[in-house]
Each structure stands twice: as C-alpha cells, then as structure tokens.
Amino acid sequence: MLTVDFDRLGLEPGDRVLDMGAGAGRHSFEIYRRGGNVIAFDQNADELAQVRDLFAAMKEVGEAPAGAEADVKEGDALSLPFADGEFDRVVCAEVLEHIHRDVDAIKELIRVLRPGGTMAITVPRWLPEVINWKLSADYHNAEGGHIRIYTDHELVDKVTKGGRMNDGTEGDAMVFEGKSYAHGLHTPYWWLKCAVGVNNDKHPLVKAYHQVLVWDIMKTKGWSTLTRGAERALNPVIGKSMVLYFRKPDAA
What we know:
Helices cover about 40% and strands about 20% of the residues. With about 250 residues, the chain is of the alpha/beta class.
C-alpha cells in the first residue's frame, strides 16, 4: 500500500534513495523493484531485520533489476549518519507527526539530499486526523503515537524554510512542487475504529470494513475495480494521507 507516487518523485533506476522511517519497508521494496539503490532507515532494529530479509528474498527471486542495491540502517532521524547531498531522492512517509523536534528532522532530510534532488513527505491529513483525535484519545495518546496535526501550509512552510542555501546564505531550502492525497478508503475505517474503540478489532463493523481493505490491498478479482474507484473518488475529499513533493535548488 504505497502513499508516495514515485513517478511524480522522479525516481530513476540507479538513483540513491533514502527511505527515512521505513518501518516495515513498503516504500523501500517498491524503490528496489524500480531499480533504485535504497537505504531503509529506521530506529526499530526488529523491523529492519525483517526488511533486510525481504530484500534478500526479492533479489533471490529476481524481483529487483540487476545492479539495484538495497540495505538497512538503524539510527536517529535527528542525526542521520550520511554525508551532505548523499541521496538523489528522499522519502519520509508518516514519520514527522511522531517527532517532537520535527524541524530538526526536516533539516537533516534536506542536508542529505543532493542539489537538484527531490523529496516526498507524507503525514496524516488535517481533517481526517482532527476527527480521529476528537473521537478517541487513545488514538493519539498511545506510546509513540501522533503528537501533532499538520496543515498543508504549516508543513510546506517548515520544509521550504528548513535550512540554508548551498552558498550558506539564508533562503528557502526547498521548492514546493505540489501535493496529493492518498488512502481515502482508509479514513472511514479509522473513524469507525476510533468511534467503537481503537483496539476493538473484533467489532463486527470493524471486521467487515477491514475485509474490504484486505480485498483492495490484495486486488481481489471483482472487488479491486470497485475499491480502486472508491479510493480515487474519496482521495481529494477525505484522503487520510497528505503527500507533499519538494525539490532542492541546484547549486548554481
């Protein structure tokens, strides 16, 4: 279940890509399939071990093009262990809403992106997230949960002013190139979960809706056309995730 549009990001085979906050690796795997040289970065060693194993399995069965490389790295988002300008593309999906010092994390993302490179940042969309918070305190009070709700204007401002230009002078660190929304079909599911109890997975309505999402993810014949159409219709209105695209200005 991808949130980032890699065509819009400009991903090309051979690109060096950082997936910051990779989690279980959903975006990293797609980058690898497309021939990118990807680093799945996260602070969860257990998840990274599973991602590494799946990278190896993908290579073994030929799911990634020859020459593509994939690896994992454990560390802190506030102090990325990479050189300035090391990556052509950076992906940061559903991470910043968990980080108290989000501006410092954004500065690190900008630092490791090369001039001319592109970045995709995704966070929960404001309206669906506000409703979740109002329906359930447990939704965001859990350990490691969401600590803020972004508007698009706030996050764009933080990223475009998140650093210095290449010559050291003050200026917009990144150029905002547009936005989209994703996972509209998931928004009512989370509203339902928050309404009946965010951990109440046995509720019949929750179970039924979850099955619909499974059919969609698995592209079940007969259902995928219906669910894909519903997703496309819902994304502009209540898409659960907001996706912002940026480009780092060239050194010249």
